[in-house]
């Protein structure tokens, strides 16, 4: 993940894990469809199922199953689970990016540019930081959110852009 | 050597304090002069110091404490007194420590006796004469029954034996006990589980080492449980707002129209003004899948104290704000965590974060927000746990430059094995250890039936840097209670400059900092003393201007 203001944490994709966000009310059916592919880890508040792919299941079989779930509109996105090498904590890539615009730029114009040039939709404005927004990456899959965040972060009118990971909390 | 006296028909066990001696002078003036002389002797010999000198009606008494000297206290202190003062020493008296309370008692040559109603004067006199006791006074309030008698023995420790012999004459005597000069522990609280809270007042409970604690009692003697207006935010998985030992200390939003009365839930957007624990899943004592972590943290920081109930928090009169950033699972989006910090900073003086996540620029930005916007620009003090990974690096956001990074030490004043080490650690605070023989922390637990770390409203096995962190947050709240004008980094300076350098043998302190202990173990008493002193200096400087 890139950020101009902070050192970039080193991330790696965990090869046998995949996260899907199911649509509200579809947890049981998605869980049932994934059950044959490996063990699932439920994060019900976030509507996330993390699948630990069984060794006997091929990557292609998993991709096919996930695509079917997306085609049937049972899941919002399917993204890799990443490992922050510094902390050893898992991070689930979502379809959201936190974007802080630089002060002094015309915000509405900048937001329109982001939509046009990067294909994102503009979500909620931050309650405490008036130049900060959540932007959404349509049809997020694979590492697309990460790639979009990197390109947003390079913009001169953006202070920082960072994927809004679901981060593992260690207590 | 063990001794005892009797109270309510039970023996009260005492241990003699070989390094302490009570001295009684013939008149109060001599005591006053001797006190000064003893201080001079202490300065000269560096082996003797005055631990206490009483005043008022006990103005003739002085208690001296000698540390590290090979000579007996009597010879070291009394012999060192100027001759004209030594002449006025009426007698020396042994000092005992009561095992349960660890309070000191000086055995005088007096015994207080209450005779039974109907005990004849002849029988009373015969008993006293038989033991060689002289009647010296009567109680102002019950002259018929309560009597002060003086022993004629040379060794005042014999007073205990004589008092116990009087107790044995139970056909005549209702009770008898030495008329001790009793140490008064100022600032203590009456909460029944306080005796188990060794992290606040370590008297050697269990197998703990006495005094290896956060020095709460001394701090409370200076600022009580803190100011009501100081608010500590617990950013976690919610706080049990109905807990009987927390609810009276909950922050109340000063804005009457505000819906967030006690805090905010950033997870459940359908019920955002109710930051209670809400999500539970069996097994109900599992931290990751249950909202049970914030409630014990809140108790360590600011459970209501001196209310004759349960436990006391370090800042037991300050307020708790509940900020719920996660619920029922071990994942949360970065923006929610960051906004929880920002929200806390808009209302709270101190923010306690007993968790670690992967580094993120939005959370870093939130930490900057807290120290620049919190407390009207003076900055909220953000305390963050360094983590429990046995690692040689501390977690994020404790590694952020704008926080107080808190590690853990155990009930013996040694490093808790799990507590992460690193250059970024600010200080440590008492908590549990991997070794099950070391004591855990007694604090509040969720009151929902069958949920939490224990079956009741309190648990005694909380720990980790999760527990150390709200303890330091509580100390920061006491520091701000003593001096509200301090900026956040000045509070951090006060905490680090007054911390106790523990385990100096293995701590490997370099320029005052250890990778295990940071600048040492938090010392609430010393921190509050320093904060008050800075406040006094500030007032003096303001007057001059």
Please give a structural write-up:
- The complex is a heterodimer of chains A (171) and B (545).
- Chain A is of the alpha+beta class and 171 residues long.
- Chain A has 4 helices and 10 strands; from the N terminus they run βαββαβββαββαββ.
- Chain A has 2 domains: 11-92, Alpha-Beta Plaits (2-Layer Sandwich), CATH 3.30.70.100; 96-167, ACT domain (Alpha-Beta Plaits, 2-Layer Sandwich), CATH 3.30.70.
- Helix content of chain A is 26%, strand content 37%.
- The model of chain A has no long low-confidence stretch (mean pLDDT 92).
- Chain B has 3 domains: 2-106, Alpha-Beta Plaits (2-Layer Sandwich), CATH 3.30.70; 110-182, Peptidase S8 propeptide/proteinase inhibitor I9 (Alpha-Beta Plaits, 2-Layer Sandwich); 193-539, Peptidase S8/S53 domain (Rossmann fold, 3-Layer(aba) Sandwich), CATH 3.40.50.200.
- Helix content of chain B is 27%, strand content 21%.
- Chain B starts with a strand and ends with a helix.
- The A-B interface holds A 3, 5-7, 9, 42-46, 48, 84, 86-89, 91-92, 94, 96, 98, 100, 126-129, 132, 134, 160, 162, 164-171 and B 267, 279, 287-288, 293, 326-335, 337-339, 342-343, 346, 354-362, 364-365, 369, 387-389, 393, 395-396, 464, 466.
SSE-based structural type of chain A:
alpha+beta
* Assigned CATH superfamily of the largest domain in chain B: Peptidase S8/S53 domain
How can the largest sheet of chain A be summarized?
6 strands, antiparallel
Task: Find the count of extended strands of chain B (DSSP E, 2+ residues).
Answer: 21
Instruction: Using the CA coordinates, give the radius of gyration of chain B.
Output: 27 Å
| Biggest interface, chains and residue tallies | A-B, 38 and 41 residues
Structural category of chain B is: alpha/beta
Uncertain runs of chain B with pLDDT below 50, 5 residues or more? 45-58, 66-74
The overall pLDDT of chain A, averaged over residues, is 92
Could you name the CATH class of the largest domain in chain A?
A: Alpha Beta
Can you name the CATH architecture of the largest domain in chain B?
Answer: 3-Layer(aba) Sandwich
Q: What is the percent of helical residues of chain B? A: 25-40%
Alpha plus pi helix count of chain A: 4
């Amino acid at each position: 993940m890139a950020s101009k203001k902070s050192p970039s944490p080193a991330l790696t994709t965990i090869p046998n894990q995949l996260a899907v966000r199911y649509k509200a009310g579809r947890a049981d059916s998605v869980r049932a469809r994934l059950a044959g592919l490996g063990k699932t880890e439920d994060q019900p508040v976030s509507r996330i199922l993390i699948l630990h792919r069984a060794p006997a299941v091929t990557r292609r079989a998993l991709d096919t199953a996930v695509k079917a779930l997306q085609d049937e509109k049972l899941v919002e996105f399917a993204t890799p689970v990443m490992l922050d090498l510094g902390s050893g904590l898992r991070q689930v890539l979502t379809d959201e990016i936190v974007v802080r615009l630089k002060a002094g730029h015309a915000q509405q114009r900048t937001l329109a540019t982001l939509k046009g040039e990067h294909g994102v939709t503009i979500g909620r404005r931050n309650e405490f930081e008036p130049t900060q927004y959540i932007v959404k990456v349509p049809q997020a899959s694979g590492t697309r959110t990460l790639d979009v965040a990197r390109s947003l972060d390079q913009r001169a009118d953006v202070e920082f852009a960072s994927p809004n990971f679901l981060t593992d909390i260690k207590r | 050597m063990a001794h005892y006296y009797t109270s309510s028909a039970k023996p009260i066990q005492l241990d003699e304090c070989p390094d302490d001696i009570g001295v009684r002078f013939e008149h109060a003036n001599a005591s006053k002069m001797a006190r000064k002389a003893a201080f001079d002797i202490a300065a000269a010999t560096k082996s003797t110091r005055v631990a206490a000198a009483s005043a008022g009606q006990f103005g003739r008494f002085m208690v001296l404490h000698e540390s590290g000297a090979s000579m007996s206290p009597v010879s070291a202190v009394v012999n060192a007194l100027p001759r004209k003062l030594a002449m006025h020493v009426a007698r020396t008296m042994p000092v005992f420590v009561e095992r349960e309370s660890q309070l000191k008692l000086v055995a005088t040559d007096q015994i207080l006796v209450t005779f039974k109603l109907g005990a004849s004067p002849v029988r009373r006199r015969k008993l006293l004469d038989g033991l060689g006791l002289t009647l010296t006074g009567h109680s102002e309030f019950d002259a018929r029954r309560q009597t002060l008698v003086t022993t004629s023995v040379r060794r005042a420790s014999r007073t205990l034996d004589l008092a116990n012999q009087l107790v044995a004459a139970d056909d005549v005597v209702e009770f008898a006990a030495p008329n001790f000069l009793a140490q008064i522990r100022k600032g203590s609280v009456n909460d029944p589980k306080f005796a188990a809270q060794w992290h606040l007042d370590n008297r050697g409970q269990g197998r703990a080492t006495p005094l290896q604690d956060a020095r709460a009692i001394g701090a409370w003697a200076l600022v009580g449980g803190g100011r009501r207006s100081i608010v500590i935010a617990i950013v976690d998985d919610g706080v049990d707002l109905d807990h009987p030992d927390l609810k009276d200390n909950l922050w109340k939003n000063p804005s009457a129209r505000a819906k967030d009365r006690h805090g905010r839930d950033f997870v459940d957007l359908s019920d955002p003004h109710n930051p209670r624990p809400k999500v539970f899943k069996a097994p109900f004592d599992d931290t990751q899948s249950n909202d049970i972590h914030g409630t014990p943290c809140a108790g360590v920081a600011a459970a209501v104290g001196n209310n004759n109930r349960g436990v006391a928090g370090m800042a037991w009169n300050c307020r708790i704000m509940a900020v719920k950033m996660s619920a029922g699972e071990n994942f949360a989006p970065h923006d929610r965590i960051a906004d929880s910090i920002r929200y806390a900073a808009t209302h709270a003086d101190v923010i306690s974060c007993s968790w670690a996540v992967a580094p993120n620029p939005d959370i870093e930005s939130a930490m900057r927000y807290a120290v620049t916007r919190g407390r009207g620009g003076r900055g909220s003090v953000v305390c963050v746990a360094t983590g429990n990974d046995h690692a040689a690096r501390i977690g994020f956001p404790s590694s952020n430059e704008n926080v107080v990074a808190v590690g853990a030490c155990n009930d013996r004043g040694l490093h808790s094995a799990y507590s992460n080490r690193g250059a970024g650690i600010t200080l440590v605070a008492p908590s549990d250890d991997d070794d099950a023989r070391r004591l855990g922390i007694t604090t509040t637990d969720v009151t929902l039936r069958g949920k939490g770390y224990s079956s009741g409203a309190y648990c005694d096995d909380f720990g980790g840097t999760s527990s150390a962190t709200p303890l330091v947050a509580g100390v920061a709240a006491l520091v701000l209670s003593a001096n509200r004008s301090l900026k956040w980094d000045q509070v951090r300076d006060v905490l680090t400059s007054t911390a106790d350098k523990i385990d100096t043998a293995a701590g490997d302190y370099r320029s005052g900092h250890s990778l295990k202990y940071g600048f040492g173990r938090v010392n609430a008493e010393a921190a509050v003393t320093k904060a008050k002193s800075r406040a006094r200096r500030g007032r003096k400087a303001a007057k001059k201007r």
